[in-house]
Write a structure and sequence with these properties.
By secondary structure, this protein is mostly helical. The chain folds into three domains: 346 residues, no CATH class; 62 residues, no CATH class; 46 residues, no CATH class. 55% of the residues lie in helices and 2% in strands. A two-stranded antiparallel sheet has the order 1-2. It has a two-stranded antiparallel ribbon with strand order 3-4. It is globular, with a radius of gyration of 25 Å. The termini are far apart. The C terminus is likely disordered.
Length: 507
């Protein structure tokens, strides 16, 4: 045995190995292929795949204006010329860097330690955009103040926790993030407002005979376009095409270095001063908007958490073929609810919570490098939002486009999110159109005794809250089908489960 093999074997039989159920620990449910050094490598890969969120989330939250007060709102709606206000938002950004790193560290560490899942947790790239640009609005121009919006998130988290505790538990957002990444305030300035059209390119035509020109966007126009487009976009995408770990953070670092070197301290601990203990429980003047924000936060959070956790569990081969659930699912939901996920560690071989514990420790170390994350310019993270959006849009292939009762609501959701600049409006349009279309079809079917139905009615996606072999109440967009004995035996063999009872037949 080599040195690495000996360490893997010793750790496996230690209390650490039995807690995380490493291969060779002797636990009845030990996870095959889970080795100590493999888990360490998976944790490092998980952190570097998610580290960009620290900078991107801080930039998005700072765009809300936080607790900053603008004294020139009457003449400058977005307070873009109020120096004191802009300095205050920079403080908000530094606070958000520390807060993002801290909560990601705590949540990821707890996910690994208590749920034994190789999953990293960090603020979601859809909900933070909804919080800033729809609920609070750019620099506080939205319908709900920053403090009241935080109260909605606080309540939503505990509602989600209750649902998980008692066992009741993204393409349009991708386009929404892409639009943010293309704009001037938080991106690479390829899309700007217009008068003749809803939006346009910054290279607007002066006269038909004199071609196009780049508008005067300020001294940062050149680094935004050269650095943001070429280095941030092309370089990062190429790295991702070759499956280079940490490709996104590498692109952000390169653009930041090229754009504007700073004399900022490298290592420091920034004390949060403006974004803690600022909730506002007097919501009497924001009832409707507060309720809409609360429901949207909860709805998106549940769907995001469910899809991510089950996707990662299936990717890591941790799904029980009988119950279609995974070990520690309730704890995983509760940890996510009390915090607010990445599978890069799983692709590096991570199968246990030790991967998440390592990633959580890395996030903790990053707290002391807050000055670096706070000094990253917006055009360095703009391309990241576009890349994240492109990856989220990939889920459209799972939509049932063959049946209009499924396809039209999905399209409305996807299209209206970026066009209305509101995730909530997109969700409402999709849900309402789905209910309306399919209820009318069902009523016509019932009234005609089943004779009048759309020609391809059988191609629709059925739905149920029940899963084959169990009763975990999650909406599943597929017909319920009990697997055959041969399929079940194959799944059991693949998952490494020694014995399994036959699934109970659905009523």
């Amino acid at each position: 045995m080599g040195f690495i093999d000996k360490i893997n074997a010793k750790v496996a039989v230690s209390p650490v190995g039995r807690w995380f159920k490493l291969e060779g620990c002797g636990h009845p449910k030990e996870r095959k292929g889970s080795l100590f050094f493999t888990e360490i490598r998976g944790g490092l890969a998980c952190f570097f795949a998610m580290a960009y969120i620290i900078a991107v989330n801080a930039s998005i939250v700072a765009d809300s204006g936080g607790t900053c007060v603008c004294n020139t709102r009457d003449i400058d709606r977005f307070c873009l010329k109020d120096t004191d206000y802009l300095m205050c938002t920079q403080q908000i950004k530094r606070d958000a860097v520390t807060a993002t790193a801290a909560i990601s560290s705590l949540a990821t560490f707890c996910m690994g330690l208590f749920a034994n899942m190789p999953v990293g947790l960090a603020p979601g790239m859809g909900l933070n955009a909804y919080f800033t640009y729809t609920v609070v609005g750019l620099h506080g121009t939205g319908p709900v103040p920053y403090q009241v919006a935080l109260t909605a998130i606080f309540i939503e988290g505990f509602i989600f926790f209750g649902l998980a505790l008692f066992g009741m538990r993204h393409a349009g957002i991708g386009l929404f993030l892409t639009l943010i990444g293309l704009t001037y305030s938080e991106g690479i300035a390829l899309v700007v407002g217009a008068t003749a059209t809803p939006s346009s390119s910054p290279a607007a035509p002066r006269e038909p005979s004199r071609g196009w020109h780049l508008p005067q966007l300020g001294q940062d126009a050149l680094p935004r376009h050269v650095g943001g487009h070429l280095c941030g976009g092309i370089f990062t995408t190429i790295l991702m095409m070759y499956k280079v770990r940490g490709a996104i953070i590498a692109g952000i670092v390169l653009v930041s270095i090229i754009s504007w070197p700073r004399t900022t301290p490298v290592v420091d601990f920034h004390k949060i001063s403006k974004i803690l203990n600022v909730q506002e429980w007097n919501i009497s003047g924001y009832g409707g908007q507060f309720g809409l924000a609360l429901i949207t936060f909860l709805y998106v959070d549940i769907l995001d958490c469910t899809g991510t956790l089950y996707g990662m569990a299936r990717f890591a081969n941790l799904i029980d073929p009988v119950t279609q659930d995974f070990e520690g699912s309730s704890i995983a939901y509760m940890v996510d609810a009390l915090s607010i996920s990445s599978g890069a560690g799983i692709s590096e071989g991570g199968k246990t919570g030790l991967t998440a514990v390592v990633a959580g420790l890395c996030f903790f170390i990053s707290i002391f490098f807050a000055p670096i994350f706070a000094s990253i310019p917006p055009w360095a993270t703009g391309c990241v939002l576009i890349l994240v959006g492109s990856m989220m849009v990939g889920s459209v292939t799972e939509i049932n486009w063959r049946y209009l009762g499924d396809g039209v609501p999905a399209f409305l959701t996807i299209a209206l999110m970026p066009f209305t600049y509101s995730i909530a409006d997109g969700l409402i349009a999709g849900i309402c159109s789905y209910i309306c279309l399919n209820t009318i079809v069902w009523l016509i079917k019932v009234a005609s005794g089943g004779r009048i139905v759309p020609p391809n009615y059988e191609e629709r996606d059925g739905w149920t809250y029940r899963i084959p072999g169990g009763f975990f109440p999650v909406v599943v967009q597929s017909e319920v089908r009990t697997p055959s004995e041969g399929e079940l035996a194959s799944d059991v063999e693949k998952s490494g489960v020694a014995t399994a009872q036959a699934p109970r037949k659905e009523e």
